[in-house]
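Replying to the earlier thread about multi-chain prediction with a worked example.

Input:
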Amino acid sequence: MVTIRPYREETDARAVGRLIADTFGRYNLDHLERRERDFFLGPFRHAESDDPAHRAEIAKMIRSEIVLVADDGGEVVGVLRGRAERLGSLFVRGDRHRGGIGRALVERFEELAWGQGGRRIYVSATPFAVSFYLAVGYRKSTGARRMRVFDGAGYEYQPMKKVLSAPLPRRGVPTAAASTCASSGGARR
Ligand SMILES: CC(C)(COP(=O)(O)OP(=O)(O)OC[C@H]1O[C@@H](n2cnc3c(N)ncnc32)[C@H](O)[C@@H]1OP(=O)(O)O)[C@@H](O)C(=O)NCCC(=O)NCCS
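Result:
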């Protein structure tokens, strides 16, 4: 069973750093040469390092007002970072894609964002994730754009937005269902 829970820096930072490095590298930066990929990974290129300075830098990068992880029996298989009106980043481990984890993280995030006064959510979606965001109710707000990510320049992204209409429980989605999802990848298909 996958549980969506708050991130705990002391125990989760290492696993979350690895998850971001692996997933970002494999699904969003795979078209780049190693050297260029490292520019876009920024501090996450050191996700395997035991150097305390690297670990501290990664822990600092992960911090945000809202950080949620998808936890499967103590193993972190997904992470979402954001704040009231901004979904900052979302990563689900590759072997767990299409198992409902991304949706569960976004639903829990929207619930928390609503509670903090957020009435719309903006996200800079990777090209890979546009179909996912469309499926969970986001819409393109402009054409594709390019931005700087750490030391890497010109990363293509798609600005997207969702207007939140009402808190999840009033939309008829039980809170428990919004916080958990099927444990095995593809189990819902
Ligand atoms: C985008 C991402 C977080 C989605 O996570 P996920 O757990 O696989 O998503 P879900 O299983 O909850 O998908 C919900 C729905 O979105 C749609 N969807 C998800 N991934 C999709 C894909 N690759 N292609 C087309 N539709 C997709 C489907 O409609 C899916 O429902 P279904 O599986 O019942 O058909 C994951 O693919 C990921 O980590 N990608 C790499 C990192 C990335 O690009 N992150 C976005 C940063 S902004």
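The chain has six helices and nine strands.

Feel free to reuse this layout for your own posts.
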